[in-house]
Amino acid sequence: MPTIKNQKYILALAILTASTVSISQEISYDYIQATYASVTIDTETTAGDLDGNGVGFSGLFSVAPSVAINVGYGTTNYDELLGIDIDTTSLTFGLTAHTSISSGTDVLGSFTVIKGNMEASNGINNIDDDDTGNIISVGLRHLVTDTFELEVEFSRTDIFDDTSNEFFIGGRLYASDKFSLAAGYAKGDDVDALLLNTRVDFK
Asked: Which among 33, 72, 119, 197 is least surrounded, fewest beta carbons within 10 Å?
């Protein structure tokens, strides 16, 4: 089987579950959401790029005025690479701290534990590898209008004995006070992802 760092696959999952636009018109930190991601990995092999599709479910739940618990689950299925099928999953759990710096603008930081698993099979040999790591992120979110907001986020993922940096930018459109849609782009070390997201706020 060709050698590709497992960390790259889990980085894609980290992007899927941790990159979120989460300010509402009332700066809500209580919501559940679903995300779809189209992922491309530079394999750094003669096989070229590897494409995959991922789905993630996550939520944020306030436990104090400026602190929330974040949880998430993500799975990604990749196209066949040199006869190999690859699937990944992840679970995340962490804390997010946030504060307002001006009207309609928040800064926040998160520390999240991530449990990642990668399975690969060529029909004869199977690889099943997992590891536990962490994601540290900081972000800025700004409400441009009553119905549209922007977010920029930087994060660092440490898993499978490697670290990588990620950048995310996205925008969210509010259909109502409780329901919104978002789109974004994430860039990591040899990983690119386009994300579509739907969210329901419950406070």
From this structure: 119
Residue 2 φ/ψ region, left for φ over 0, alpha for ψ in the -120 to 50 degree band, beta for the rest: beta
Q: Which CATH number fits domain 6-201: 3.40.50.300, 3.10.180.10, 2.60.34.10, 2.40.160.20?
A: 2.40.160.20
Give the C-alpha separation, 175 to 164, whole Å.
35
**What pTM, to 2 d.p., does this model score?**
0.86
34-83 pLDDT, tens digit each: 999 999 998 887 778 899 999 999 999 999 989 999 999 999 999 887 78
C-beta neighbour count of 173 within 10 angstroms: 13
